[in-house]
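call fold(seq) -> tokens
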Amino acid sequence: MLPLSPKSCLSLLVILSLMTSCKESSKSDTETATELSSGDTSENALDWNGQYKGVLPCDDCSGIATTLTLRSDGDFRRVEFYKDKSQQAIVERGSFSWVDAGSVIILALEDGRTQGYKVGENQLWHLDENLQQISDSLADQYILYKNRMDLALENKKWVLKELMGQPIELQEGQKEAYLIFNSENAMVSGNNGCNQISMGYELLEGNRFKLAPGITTLMACPYENISDQLNEVLDRADNYTVSNDELHLNKARMAPLAKFKFVPETP
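ret:
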């Protein structure tokens, strides 16, 4: 895994926007509404924060690959890539507000425009300029689906304890290697034993996952054997197991490439 240049960082955003997620079966508005108890709204009753993906229809391209991240603090990040039309992704950040009795969010875009989405169980409906659902023959394509989540894995600090079958014994001055899978922005952050690392991820069925090419800091590493080997593991691993506060990163059905231990983060 090599450090990325600023130009490569833009390519990373494109890759993230094109990573497709396994979709749960969609539900109609009626089904979603029925699941909410009287007095509950999408805002207060659903786990809406997280990352959503889909490919929206496009008049003059083959589709708009869209990744929308909604944070619990009311901020968003949207990445759009116009397939077969542009080599650059459009990245927008800002805040969103709730309307329509807590069932619709409105993104405040940087150029003064707005975009509405109806919030359902694990999905968002891209709305028209009047905040109405699109009901033409392409209606099913105006849906963004939420990334699969696994709270046994995510939002925890996993400290490296074994790498390529060898136990980790930190030397004086050596940094602790660890990973954190953040469910809210679908990003892995941590340290490879020397440099900070950051990369996008996607969880798939059967405890499988995908990692996007990562970004690292560029400090000189006196203990490159650990950092290089962990980078290699992150390139190769395609599935994981979590049991008894231990995380294994694996390739197919082979022996674990790396073993991590859950360590509660101190306030």
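The CA atoms of residues 63 and 83 lie 6 Å apart.
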